[in-house]
Amino acid sequence: IVKTSLFENNTAVNNAGAIGVTGVGEVSISDSKFINNSANRAGAIGADNGKISIENSVFTSNNAYEAGAIGTTGQSLVTIINSNFTQNKASRAGVIGNEKGKSVIKNSNFISNSADYVGVLYLGGENSEVDRCKFFHNVAPEISAILVDGINATVHNSNFDNNTNGKTLVIGGKSRNTTLENNTGLDDIEY
User: Fold this and answer.
1) DSSP reduced 3-state for 85
2) What residues does 126 pair with on adjacent strands?
């Protein structure tokens, strides 16, 4: 359990700049800040088949090759509630890269993040959900906000505004049964 903590200016060569979760490990984070951390896979938090729960936290200016703030491998579960992600950068996913696991993201803001491929979220795996989130001013040449490349994903009740360069949301080739409902500003979608 991590509460009311500050992780700033940490660097790692491989896994994660601030916190790494491996195996069946689990970490619960609340009311914490992750600022200017960096690593190859995940700028702030990395997981390999682990569980990450984040609430009321801030991620600013973290960077990595794979995922600017949170990167996972294997069947990781990432749950994020009431958190803010600003100016995170990566080559692949500007904020979260969860290619095989489940992501549940609610009431969170993604502002001015960037990447070479996906500006904010890479959602793979099964049953991922994005609910009541804001995506503003994110930039990537391929996909400015979200790549959905998993099964039974839902993006609903969210607001997209001024995300530039690439498509706002892309439904990838591995996707099945993706649901998009009650979103605003989501007019640049590629299937």
Assistant:
1) strand
2) 151
pLDDT for the residue 14: 84
| 97 touches 73 (CB < 8 A) | no
Residue 154 CA: distances (Å) to CA of 90, 129, 181, 186: 24, 5, 8, 14
Question: Could you tell me which residues come within 8 angstroms of residue 122 by beta carbon, excluding any fewer than 6 positions away?
Answer: 67, 92, 93, 96, 97, 98, 99, 147, 149
Q: How far apart (Å, rounded) are the C-alpha atoms in residues 174 and 189? A: 16
According to the model, what pLDDT value does residue 24 have? 80
CA dist 127 and 148 (Å) reads 11
- pLDDT at position 95: 98
Token pair for 25: 């490990």
Mean pLDDT, the chain, integer: 95
Task: Count other Cβ atoms within 10 Å, centred on residue 181.
Answer: 9
